[in-house]
Known about the structure:
The protein is of the alpha+beta class. It contains seven helices and eleven strands. A nine-stranded antiparallel beta sheet has the order 5-2-4-3-11-8-10-9-6. Strands 1-7 form a two-stranded antiparallel sheet. Helix 5 crosses helix 6.
Amino acid sequence: xxxxxxxxxxxxxxxxxxxxxxxxxxxxxxxxxxxxxxxxxxxxxxxxxxxxxxxxxxxxxxxxxxxxxxxxxxxxxxxxxxxxxxxxxxxxxxxxxxxxxxxxxxxxxxxxxxxxxxxxxxxxxxxxxxxxxxxxxxxxxxxxxxxxxxxxxxxxxxxxxxxxxxxxxxxxxxxxxxxxxxxxxxxxxxxxxxxxxxxxxxxxxxxxxxxxxxxxxxxxxxxxxxxxxxxxxxxxxxxxxxxx
Length: 244
């Protein structure tokens, strides 16, 4: 299956942590999780797309996309009340799906990261299931760092440098999506809060994602150290997609 991945400027994204033992966002979900997926289909604040990924340890995580920030926020509220809360209507669905060595998440630790405003989207071509995606979270050092990072790392020239380096290294690379986290303000001056970025970089395979990550770290080590106080990444192979 393939589909286009470029998104509108108001599109929002949440990325869950790897914690499930099988994909649950399916057109025909397993019986144990079917009531939850059917309930999500019926609510107005549902995501328009959910992509399931298999992490390197075999655990499953999802990336969900929303048309705007209010829809994303309302879905989080609904999910917390109707699925995450012990004793809630769909809590048992999650208990069946969670990996054996993993605790059920709470609202505070469910997500790896979230993005509420697109800063740049250089992804191209059709998204094929089986491709790998590296999701990264970046903690900006300061308002000044946010201004500098946004004025450099979100420009076409920066992406062109990445693309050339990937080509030279033999890495199959299909661009990246970079988003500002919901709590971060626009980088229009040093007085603004620093906040976080979340990115999704698309590769041909897990091996490409690993090698591509090494290429970027080597190329931009000074900038990464100057702009960000911490970075964290998860890599997964896209295995399922659910259009809602």
